[in-house]
Amino acid sequence: MVNIGIIGMGRIGKVHAESIMTGVKSACVLAAADPFMTGETAEWAKSLGIENVYDDYRKIIKDKQIDAVLICSSTDTHTPVSLEAIDAGKHVFCEKPIDHDPDRINEVINALKNSSCKYQVGFNRRFDHNFRAVKKAVDEGRIGDVHIVKITSRDPEPPPPAYIKVSGGIFLDMTIHDFDMIRYLTGSDAKEIYASGEVLIDQAIKDAGDIDTAVVTVKMENGAICVIDNSRKSVYGYDQRAEVFGSKGCVSVGNDKASSAEISTVDGVYSEKPLWFFLERYIQSYRDEIKSFVQAIELDKPTEVSVYDGLQPVRMGLAAKLSLLEGRPVKLSEIKS
Amino acid sequence: MVNIGIIGMGRIGKVHAESIMTGVKSACVLAAADPFMTGETAEWAKSLGIENVYDDYRKIIKDKQIDAVLICSSTDTHTPVSLEAIDAGKHVFCEKPIDHDPDRINEVINALKNSSCKYQVGFNRRFDHNFRAVKKAVDEGRIGDVHIVKITSRDPEPPPPAYIKVSGGIFLDMTIHDFDMIRYLTGSDAKEIYASGEVLIDQAIKDAGDIDTAVVTVKMENGAICVIDNSRKSVYGYDQRAEVFGSKGCVSVGNDKASSAEISTVDGVYSEKPLWFFLERYIQSYRDEIKSFVQAIELDKPTEVSVYDGLQPVRMGLAAKLSLLEGRPVKLSEIKS
Amino acid sequence: MVNIGIIGMGRIGKVHAESIMTGVKSACVLAAADPFMTGETAEWAKSLGIENVYDDYRKIIKDKQIDAVLICSSTDTHTPVSLEAIDAGKHVFCEKPIDHDPDRINEVINALKNSSCKYQVGFNRRFDHNFRAVKKAVDEGRIGDVHIVKITSRDPEPPPPAYIKVSGGIFLDMTIHDFDMIRYLTGSDAKEIYASGEVLIDQAIKDAGDIDTAVVTVKMENGAICVIDNSRKSVYGYDQRAEVFGSKGCVSVGNDKASSAEISTVDGVYSEKPLWFFLERYIQSYRDEIKSFVQAIELDKPTEVSVYDGLQPVRMGLAAKLSLLEGRPVKLSEIKS
Amino acid sequence: MVNIGIIGMGRIGKVHAESIMTGVKSACVLAAADPFMTGETAEWAKSLGIENVYDDYRKIIKDKQIDAVLICSSTDTHTPVSLEAIDAGKHVFCEKPIDHDPDRINEVINALKNSSCKYQVGFNRRFDHNFRAVKKAVDEGRIGDVHIVKITSRDPEPPPPAYIKVSGGIFLDMTIHDFDMIRYLTGSDAKEIYASGEVLIDQAIKDAGDIDTAVVTVKMENGAICVIDNSRKSVYGYDQRAEVFGSKGCVSVGNDKASSAEISTVDGVYSEKPLWFFLERYIQSYRDEIKSFVQAIELDKPTEVSVYDGLQPVRMGLAAKLSLLEGRPVKLSEIKS
Fold first, then answer.
1. Given 3-state DSSP classes, what are the helix, strand and coil percentages for chain D, each rounded to the nearest 5?
2. pLDDT at residue B22 above 90?
């Protein structure tokens, strides 16, 4: 039995708490902490069977009974809390991104070097049934050498401007998942990135210093060319598709829907929209990434998303930012590693 | 909190136990009984948090703490256990079919008349996301008056001949779900049934006195004509589709798959097979029927699948058997009610 | 070069005229006849390059230059004109049905026995790309032994009551195509037929002595069970689908659409309706059946749809009529052959 | 009746000849010319009803009876033959590209200024049923303002290296169709282009000075961002898809297939590959572009693909070449207009 403490009880912290308490048999959440822990959240946690609820995450770090922590707090806390947890000998699951600054991620990497702690980064989409199926087809060689990868990743609605200001921008907040996905699907690191972007949806996003529509081309070390298209507002719902084209064929996955119902009327043939957003679309992947993390601890094997996997998409996001700023392709080697 | 006892810890009993203990917050399984309770099952039940494990279901019936029972034992026990449970004031969820004999089901109906017990029958497909979507489209009037209903229902592999002998035959064992579905989708009772059947898969099924392939036409009281096609062996997996055609259009649902992956190669375009069998395909519906049952108890409202809904498909199955035997359409009124 | 005369210049006669003059290189329409030949039609025929236009089809029969005739006139004339044409040594392509009376079709069969004339019946759907693909999959053994065949065949709108009165009823007018299709796909003759039907669309159809909605079950000599569902009014367009299920798998085909466009909006995902009716849906099959007929003449090989293939669906239609009338399954052997 | 002469009787010249002689009622091909006219081609042309067959295209230019010419000869001849034809007062349909050099295209533009000749460029995909449906959805405002356009355009097999050497490179030979398509779908001109490309398929293509895999990002004047992905070798067939995403939704079209057959077996669910190559996929669009050209002449209205529409994609191709060469985004204004 792996005893877990959750640090940060916002939306994603709660998702993990519920997943573990209802669906991961060999793990148990012993404690949850949040600096703004409300009575409601505390009660909810207790109803799930979580015995200890704290304002101060350090109580979790110090708790000898706890084997592993999930860091679900705000991005700026990911690195310091990771370091404290590793120092205390805890295994760490950290939500993405570890940090916006590669130097600080490297501090975590260094801390892990002299430690036996497991470290997993929250790139949950690697655990999604559809993307897993693409990866499997690629790994089995069914499409041969990878030539082109296409990722469509569009949110149903933009976050509030206040969030955008601290998000690090679309490339570090949203595209970062897609950067991880192309690394996952190609099994290669990025070499060069060219980003094209516009504000087409909301002037407030421009005022917050960001863009809302982007097309990013990434050349990988292995020769594959990847292209990601992002929008902050897809009115028909969360659009999450991928395609890998290679020397022997092509594999693609589409969106999930609540049902396969097709209604034919005098007006046309209607089917359902994609599931609305990430909580609907990826709920199972959140469960499966935690199961995988727990299993890595139990079986003492490497986690499926390493701290190195956490670093690279941040560097890719920084390269994309620079590319957009300077209007030129940027080599990954230009970004500190 | 609704306290539940499960009677019969075979495959479906275990499904319900796990669903409730991990996914139904306002219910708890206090006890489980099975005449052949193995050590392994008992241990598994305890690991889920089920405190009491019995050989004798009467211990559950007598337990004052228990509000409701799930009857998951063999079909021949459904009626007597239902009667005992109702007599003890328990709410009852009973797997389908209640019985092969309408007279015995009527005993349950009569027992319920002088009781405030809830009674729900395990026609889980009514809770499936796809069939729910069809029902919703019909109820919203999007396809107008219902003219034709088509149900495809094919199992991936036949049960063992020993099971077939006690199953009541394909119509009471397998088609019974489809009979329920056409009642659910049309909102009408059957008027006349014509069954056509053959043994095309396995001589052992013939030796067991049954058929393995059937097409059944059902005229409903409201004029709709329904057709069900069944096979005991669909090599590509569990084939579960429905279509309702009416004056304003048509709604159809297809099979669920593990992923939406499509692989295009020199040999063609491949996608995944349907999910293998009912545990894969209908797992969520098993959870949702139990949630609905618990909610009916909590809110003191009628269950979504009444004892009457349990009786009619049995009568339809008997009519289909008679039709096949005599080679003629059989009116439902010929079957005892 | 095969010289052709067309007898009957209604809608389907014109389709064949245009197909041949623009798309069948080794054939030429020398003459067209229609008792009600209008000036407009005559002019249209001449603009296509058809040199002779007559009121009296006998001029075509007598024309020594003409090798083959297409009989596209009203059903009651099919048999006498066939007999005259065969007597004059012409090859004959005859629209379906040859006749409503098997005795008269047998006259044609007898006339052909002492003749070297080719005779093809207009079951054009056998030449449709989708149904051909189903047939190919079946013939290649990809689905193994055929167990179940399902045909959906729904018209977008009913014909006028006046037409219905002389049509022979839905089974001889509309279902006859589906009866041919199940013979084509199974490679077997029918053994027993049970028809279920209602008037659900229009009282005028009832007044004309017909039904508008039908589900017909057909047991084939080879054990396969087929089911056909028909409606005279599918508001979303011509619904023409087929499915063959067997011991090794299942093959199905859907409807053709004008484009593959899918539009996702806040209201859902829309795609196009099926092509509206038979002229849109089957235009290529009309061309291909004529090409096949011309080729049978050129290469002196049997036609792809023989006079025997013309007789059987008529018998099946008569069996279905009797089944509906008497409310019982009818053996094909009860119908004169 | 529009009298037509075809200059160049290679593959595409023959396609047009057959289309017109069999499918365009108000046009007639009076003459065909090819410097390497074979006996076989001449005979084939005569069998179609084309009376005059020449080695020297000037006989067509000089023929007073001829109203319009189709220029289907090699690319280097497009401009001089266009100029001669315009000088002789002929309407011109010219295969793409008009020329690789904007200056020479401008000579054609200038010649047209003082002429009443119609001029249409052979961007046939604008007439394809699928792309038309996308355009219609965009024009009707169903997807709102256009934000992102995605074009997938992959050939089933590369042309021979000898052809590649004179082709002008992938951007002027293959991507040029996609450049036209994004102009057509967005209704806007390009502003800036960034091309990423590799040789991943065949070293011979590299030796011929070209690439075989490309991803091209194009920013349009109206703010839309477009991305095109190209491959010279898609083993599963011609892959021709498009998607337009905007403020109110998304419209996409997929590939055409020979049938809608789906075969489910123990190995998975199989459907057909896309149609093999452009002659299969776009045959109807070749017919429809010529019908449109003939109609522009008959009704004296502008052609649907103007000489300006012929110039812009060439400039875009040159910008893409420069971008690839210099590894930077190139503004269209850098390319001579």
1. 40, 25, 35
2. no
